[in-house]
Amino acid sequence: MMDWYRLEDVAKEGDLVELYALKHTRFIFNLRKGEVFQSHRGMFRHDDLIGKPWGSQVKSHLGKPFLLLQPSLSDVLLEIPRVTQVIYPKEVGFILINMGIGPGKQVLEAGTGSGGLTAALAYSVGAEGHVTSYDARADIQKVAYENLKRLGLDVRVTLKLRDIREGFDEKNQDAVFLDVQNPHDYIYQVRGSLRAGGFFGCILPTANQVIRLLPVLREAHFGFIEICEILLRYYKAEAERFRPVDRMVAHTGFLVFSRLVNLPYDDEKASENPREIGDESVDQVLE
Fold it and tell me: Domains of the chain: which residue ranges?
């Protein structure tokens, strides 16, 4: 299976399915002939689900109703097995848009973790693009590989086990994203792998980490620096009681974005003042 979200009308063997019930109860699993899925709301035989139209109602052996759906990317990212803190879908969507991630792109990632963002990147670059993801821990990358394989996205990803202090093998990448504790230590490694004008991004939980990163980005001639956080508020879908839901996921991290610039400058002058580019400063040109 090349992609879990196939444009077909019925569920087939190997598909990733979502059984959705009242009160946001959901189960996500792959369909396999002869297998059985069991839950506290009853049992489902996979053979009974194969061939069913998407969006149809199915019932467990206890008579509990569910809807048979194809899971969204957001559902998948929230439900995958994890051994590390995941990046929330609210950040993932903004990362993909802000860094120009799309079909055919070549993307580097460091800090594979459980593979949530890796999966989103792989889904977005399509069959013609590729994602290379680095991590220093083999046990974590094993979990990420299993998650990617389950989604049929493993063919779009190369996992590499390495401390990125040693640098990246890849050059002329369209985008690099770091999910590591100390990204300021690796900015020059990132610079060596990005194409001119390429996108850089990272996520950091604390303001102190952001503050340490900023001067290094400027020294390495990264421009158009942006810092933000994504606050997502849901509302009750009830006409008579329309108001925010009781719980809100607010700050989950600072997102830092930038682009590698390759403007001509005087080497001797730059050695005295690395902020100078021609007759104008980097600040004036890029901010």
Answer: 16-71, 74-286
Overall fold of domain 74-286: Rossmann fold (3.40.50)
In tens digits, the chain (287 residues) has pLDDT values of 445 666 689 999 989 999 998 777 889 999 999 999 998 889 999 999 999 999 999 999 999 999 999 999 999 998 888 888 889 999 999 999 999 999 999 999 999 999 999 999 999 999 999 999 999 999 999 999 999 999 999 999 999 999 999 999 999 999 999 999 999 999 999 999 999 999 999 999 999 999 999 999 999 999 999 999 999 999 999 999 999 999 888 899 999 999 999 765 434 333 333 344 434 455 554 55
pTM: 0.86
CATH number of the 16-71 domain: 3.10.330.20
Beta bridge partners of 276: 281
